[in-house]
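In full, the data:

***
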Amino acid sequence: MPLQRCLDFRGRSRRAEFWWFTLFWAVIAGTAAAIDVLLLGADLLTDIFKGRLLLAAMLLFFVPHLAVSVRRLHDQGMSGWWYLVTLLPTAGTLINIWWMSRPGTPGDNRFGPDPLPAPENPTLYF
């Protein structure tokens, strides 16, 4: 379940956890925006704050998204404070997408054990 660790800023998260959460969030946000526009008559292009459901969804999912993003940075051995880079227009978003797409550090790091289980019978392919 995507919201299982929604308030947990400690530990590490795999790429899959982050991207599944992002997909879940995108579906919720898209649905809320569609309801705002189609049923409530909101014009989100002129004033996003008129989208009451979308605004509520954004507020509801802000902390869980921040938590999974911080854990994702921890998986790469980085402090969660690096998430502030997203405040940079455009470049911050691109850097953040790149960071969230990179694999984590193998094995334990200072933020905890590797969330990706080690293979039972590793095979070397040449």
